Amino acid sequence: MTKCAFCDVPAEDAWISTNLALAVPHPQPLTPCHMVVLPRRHVRAFYDLDVEEQRVLWELVTEIRNRISAVLLVKGFAVGFVDGTPASDTHAYVQVIPRTGDDGIELPPDVEWVRDAL
Predict the structure, then answer these.
(1) Which residues of 79-92 are buried (b: 16+ CB within 10 A; e: fewer)?
(2) Which tens digits make up the pLDDT trace of 57-81?
(3) Which is nearest to 23 in space by CA: 84, 82, 69, 11?
(4) Burial class (CB in 10 A: 0-12, 13-18, 19+), 15
C-alpha cells in the first residue's frame, strides 16, 4: 500500500486545522483557492466518519467558502466528495472549487459533485 499524502500534510500547509479535520490547498488546483477539506482520520469513504467528524468537515467547508469569498470575486462553488474504492484505499475528502463564471474548467468526473452554484 502506498503512503497516503493526505495523512502527512504539514501543519504549515493548512489554511484551517482542527483536531478532527483540516483544509489545505489542492495539490493540483483547477482554479485559484481550490481547496481540499479532509478528516485527520484516514477513512476510505465520507460515511465511514462518525457524525462529529462529518459535522466538523462541513463547518470547515463553510469556513473555507467564507474566507475565499472575502478575497475573491466568486459566483459560486463546486463542492464534491472524493471517496476511495475497496482497491485503492484513498483518503476520503471534500473538494471546494471557487467558480468565477469565466474559469472554463471541467469538473473531474470521478468526484461526486453535490453542488455547483453557478
Answers:
(1) bbbbbbeeeeebbb
(2) 999 999 999 999 999 999 999 999 9
(3) 11
(4) middle
Residue 94 grid coordinates: 471534500
Residues 6+ apart with CB under 8 A from 14: 22, 23, 24
Q: How many whole angstroms separate alpha carbon 89 and alpha carbon 94?
A: 16
Domains assigned to the chain: 6-116 (3.30.428.10)
Calpha distance 113→78 (Å, rounded): 7
111 CB-contact burial (10 Å; exposed 0-12 / middle 13-18 / buried 19+): middle
- Residue 95: strand, helix, or coil: strand
| Angle, CA 80 vertex, CA 118 and CA 63 arms, to 5° | 80
Local confidence band at 118 (pLDDT 50, 70, 90 cut-offs): very low
Q: How far is CA 20 from the centre of its chain?
A: 14
